[in-house]
């Protein structure tokens, strides 16, 4: 993506999906240039297998994990569903012996790909809200675990997709393990934006999505700390360690590997550059409209903070859909913090879980930046939002 000129659209919706990185596009096209089924024993198959295994190493390196623990999936949504299914199934045999979990403790700010399978699981689910700073309190997770009985799975994302607030996953994992619980950490938004280290997080399951870091849509990964019995979710051939049957999406996997490698190599320098742009945008918006509210900027304490690329901001009295449409007309693509379905904007479940009243939770939009964002993008976005605020905010 080339830097925007005055007429080209400005894309600031990286938390929805990032533009494909050139390195990922090249890897995708190269992987699809020949017949490519990694299970075939002939030379074509062996070449395909070697592409998949290199990508597995690149994705594992991004997460500080062992390549043999990486299972490629169709995306973050499937990886989260798969982790919950694995945790529920009792394990016995060569991979060890564990009872399946009988209850779930889930942060109320999780993505729907965690919340919905949790709620549909038929197991008791405790939803733990976040504080006003957007952060889930580890003590609240411990209290939820102590209030019930039986093996539990705790689900806590590493960074929230709407506010960017980084969650105290390592602390929660420690408390959960002391209580015999497993932990699923959805690192879909954190990967490639902040350093990721599976050993430091200590969680049992970590999930990633390729398209959030410049790979292609339709590919993700579940990374496990241990061996698990074959997944009860998708049965068929024995691909992906028996955890995810079906011929591999080789192009998507190759692009994921390439995107993960570039994201990892450029992380410190890109994170600083992008945080600089985000901070300038935030200062411009709050300077021009002092009534605007920034969500998640106050998150503090050990292991807390905000993703460098995310700005969730409310314009008082102006519904998120009005802001998104006005920005779109000005050629700037952003998302509403709240979900819009069948023409009705519902309050953001994340902001609601932080204790915000319904109206405020309907007025937040999310600017999310990334690898191709430029100074010019920020200027265009700021002037469009400020022009709207000047018309609408009394
Ligand atoms: N988890 C989080 C935190 C997300 O933001 C998203 C996508 O928005 C997902 C999971 C789902 O990922 P995918 O689009 O790869 O299914």
TrEMBL record:
Every Aminotransferase class V domain range: 10-380
EC number, as in UniProt: 2.8.1.7
Enzymatic reactions: (sulfur carrier)-H + L-cysteine = (sulfur carrier)-SH + L-alanine
Record's keyword terms, sorted: Iron, Iron-sulfur, Metal-binding, Pyridoxal phosphate, Transferase
Required cofactor(s): pyridoxal 5'-phosphate
Name of a matching Pfam family: Aminotran_5
InterPro entries: Aminotrans_V_dom (IPR000192), Aminotrans_V_PyrdxlP_BS (IPR020578), Cysteine_dSase (IPR016454), PyrdxlP-dep_Trfase (IPR015424), PyrdxlP-dep_Trfase_major (IPR015421), PyrdxlP-dep_Trfase_small (IPR015422)
Domain of life: Bacteria
Family: Belongs to the class-V pyridoxal-phosphate-dependent aminotransferase family. NifS/IscS subfamily.
Role of this protein: Catalyzes the removal of elemental sulfur atoms from cysteine to produce alanine. Seems to participate in the biosynthesis of the nitrogenase metalloclusters by providing the inorganic sulfur required for the Fe-S core formation.
Protein name per Swiss-Prot or TrEMBL: Cysteine desulfurase
Organism: Ferrovibrio xuzhouensis
Organism placement in taxonomy: Bacteria, Pseudomonadati, Pseudomonadota, Alphaproteobacteria, Rhodospirillales
């Amino acid at each position: 993506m080339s830097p925007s000129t005055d007429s080209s659209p400005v894309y600031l919706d990286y938390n929805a999906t990032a533009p494909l990185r050139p390195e990922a596009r090249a890897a995708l096209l190269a992987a699809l240039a020949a017949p490519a089924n990694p299970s075939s024993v002939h030379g074509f198959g062996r070449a395909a297998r070697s592409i998949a295994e290199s990508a597995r190493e690149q994705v594992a390196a991004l997460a500080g994990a062992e390549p043999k623990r990486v299972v490629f999936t169709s995306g973050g949504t499937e990886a989260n569903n798969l982790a919950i299914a694995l945790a529920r199934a009792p394990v016995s045999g060569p991979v060890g012996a564990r009872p399946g979990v009988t209850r779930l403790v889930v942060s109320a700010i999780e993505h729907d790909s965690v919340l919905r399978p949790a709620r549909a699981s038929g197991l008791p689910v405790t939803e733990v809200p976040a504080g006003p700073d957007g952060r889930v309190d580890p003590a609240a997770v411990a209290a939820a675990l102590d209030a019930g009985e039986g093996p539990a799975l705790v689900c806590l994302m590493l960074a929230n997709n709407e506010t960017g607030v980084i969650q105290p996953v390592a602390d929660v994992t420690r408390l959960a393990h002391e209580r015999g619980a497993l932990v699923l950490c959805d690192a879909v938004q954190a990967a490639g934006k902040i350093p990721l280290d599976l050993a430091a997080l200590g969680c049992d399951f970590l999930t990633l999505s390729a398209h959030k870091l410049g790979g292609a849509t339709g590919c993700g990964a579940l990374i496990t700390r241990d061996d698990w019995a074959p997944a009860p979710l998708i049965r068929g051939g024995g691909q992906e360690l028996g955890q995810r049957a079906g011929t591999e999406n080789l192009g998507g996997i190759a692009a994921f590997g390439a995107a993960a490698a570039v994201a990892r190599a450029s992380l410190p320098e890109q994170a600083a550059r992008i945080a600089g742009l985000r901070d300038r945008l935030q200062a411009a918006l709050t300077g021009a409209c002092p009534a605007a509210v920034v969500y998640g900027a106050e998150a503090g304490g050990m292991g807390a903070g905000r993703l460098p690329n995310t700005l969730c901001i409310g314009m008082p009295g102006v519904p998120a859909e009005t802001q998104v449409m006005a920005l779109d007309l000005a050629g700037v693509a952003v998302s509403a913090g709240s979900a819009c379905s069948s023409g009705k904007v519902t309050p953001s479940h994340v902001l609601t879980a932080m204790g915000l009243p319904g109206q405020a939770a309907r007025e937040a939009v999310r600017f999310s930046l990334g690898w191709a964002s430029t100074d010019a993008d920020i200027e265009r976005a700021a002037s469009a939002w400020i022009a709207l605020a000047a018309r609408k905010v009394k």
